[in-house]
Amino acid sequence: MSRSERTDKSPYAQLADVMEQYSEERSTGAVVDYQSYSELQDKLKNIDLDEGSQSWDSLWKLVDTYLSYSVKTAHPQYFNQLWAGQSTPALVGSVVESLANTSMYTYEVAPVATLIETEVLNRFKNIFGFSTGEAQVTTGGSNSNYVALLLALHNKFPSLKNQGLQGLPKVSVFVSEEAHYSMDKAMVMSGIGLDALVKVPVDRTGVMQTEALSQLLQESVNQGRVPVSIIGTAGTTVRGAFDDFNAIGDIAKAFDCWFHIDGAWGGAVAFSNTQKQFLEGRDKADSLSWDGHKMLGVPLMCGVLFVREAGSFDRVCNLGDTSYIFHDGAQRQDLGPYSLQCGRRVDMFKMWLEYVYYGEQGFEQRIDKFMTLSALAEGRILAEPSLELQSQRWINNICFRSIPSAGVDVNAYNKRIREKLYQSGNSLVNIAYLKDDLTIRLIITNKDVSEQDIEEFFDNWLATAITVQQELQQCA
Ligand SMILES: Cc1ncc(COP(=O)(O)O)c(C=O)c1O
C-alpha cells in the first residue's frame, strides 16, 4: 500500500502509519533512488497538487514523493555526513516538540522546556568540563563558533557593545588550515573580515602546528594587530584530528587571547572513557562548541556552546527593549535573553528523551562502537592492495582512496567511483581534499551499523572501482 492510499484515516493516524512504514524502509533497499535535478523537477511537476482543495490526498502524495526520493540517512550504507542514523526516543522528542510548538525564550510559553533545557545543560556542563560556567543551545556548530567569536571580541574590547568596530585596532584570529569553514563565515559576519583570519599550518596528521601558531601570533603583534582568539578543533571535519589543547591554552594565555574549541564533531568523545583523552587541555579553553546532532545522532539541530565565565552571554546577547516579552527579568527564569535568537525551537527535548532512554553509558557504548568499527574499516583498507589510507585515523573519520593503474588520474578515478556508487544507491560516502589530493571520507556514525555493513561498503566500493577501471580502459 502506498502512503497516499490511507485517506480514510485522520491525518494523525496516517502520519503514524507513514512513520511506521518509513522506519522499516529507511534501512533497506537503495540508499537513494537517484534522480538528476531535472528528472526530479519533472517528477514533482507531474504530481497533481489540486492546490487550495484542502484535501489530504495531495498532501499524502507529496509526503510519499518526499520520502521516496529522499536520501535514507539512517540506511546502513549511508556514510556521507557527520551525522547518520535515527534513534526512536529522539525522534519521538522531535515530533512531540513540533506538536506542542513553542519557543524557548520565556518560561511563560515554555515552562517544561525551560526546566528540561536547564537540567540537560547542567549535566552536559559537567561532562564537558564547564561545570562553573554557562551553556547555550544554538542552531548548530556554525552558530556556536560565531557566538564564541563575538564573545572573544567583546571580552577583548568592552567598548564594542556601544561603539561597534569604529576606533578599534586591527585584530587577528587564528585557526588551523583544516578548521571548519564556519570560522571564515564568522569572520565576515562579525565585521572583522577575512584578512584578519590567520590559517595555521597542520602537521601530516592534521593537527595545528603550535610552533607555527606562536610565530604567527608574534608576527601579527609585530604588525600592530591585536590577537583576539585562537580556535582549536576537536575532531576536524575531514580527518577528525584533535589539536593540542594544552599547548594552545598556554599560548592563548601568553598572548592574552580567548581560546575556543570547535568540538562540533569530536566533542562527543567526552562521553567515552576510552576516547576522552583527546580533549585533554579543554580546561584551558574559554569556550567549546558541540553538536548533539552529529556523533550522537540526535535529529538535526542540537547545538550547544559552553562558556567558562558565567555572565558572558548576558554581556553580549541581553539587549534592547524586551519589555513586551521578558516580564520578570529579575527572576532569571527566561533563557531567551542569553541567546542570539529570539524565537528558538526546543532542541533539547529530543536530546533529553535520548539521554534518559540510553543514559550516559549508552552514549559511551555508541561512541566506542564507532571507534571499533572504524578500526575494522582501517584494517580492511590496509589489507587491500588497491586501497590506500591517506591519513592517520584519529576517531571515526577514515580517509582513503583507490589506486588506479598507471596513467589514470587518481583524483578523477576516485571521484568517478564515488559518483557511480552514489548513483547506484548501493552506498553513499563523501569526498574531500587533503591539499590537492582527493580523499574518500568515510564517516561511521550510525549507531545501528554493523561489521557486515562495513564489509559490504568495501565490497561495493571495490566492485565499483573495477567497473570504473574497465570503463577507463575501454575509453583509452
Ligand atoms: C568541526 C566542525 N565545526 C562546525 C561545523 C558546523 O556545524 P553545523 O552544521 O551544526 O553548523 C561542522 C560541520 O560539519 C564541523 O565539522
Describe the structure.
The protein is an alpha/beta fold and 476 residues long. Among the domains are: 3-72; 92-354, Type I PLP-dependent aspartate aminotransferase-like (Major domain) (Aspartate Aminotransferase, domain 2, 3-Layer(aba) Sandwich), CATH 3.40.640. It contains 14 helices and twelve strands. The chain has helices at 11-25, 37-45, 56-69, 88-100, 111-128, 141-156, 160-163, 182-189, 210-222, 245-254, 312-317, 347-383, 410-424, 451-475; strands spanning 78-79, 134-138, 171-176, 197-200, 226-233, 258-262, 287-291, 303-307, 387-389, 397-402, 428-434, 437-443. The protein has a seven-stranded mixed β-sheet with strand order 2-8-7-6-5-3-4, with helices on both faces. α8 (182-189) links the parallel β3 and β4. The longest helix has 37 residues, at 347-383. It is globular. 43% of the residues are buried. The model has no long low-confidence stretch (mean pLDDT 95). Pyridoxal-5'-phosphate (PLP) binds next to α6.
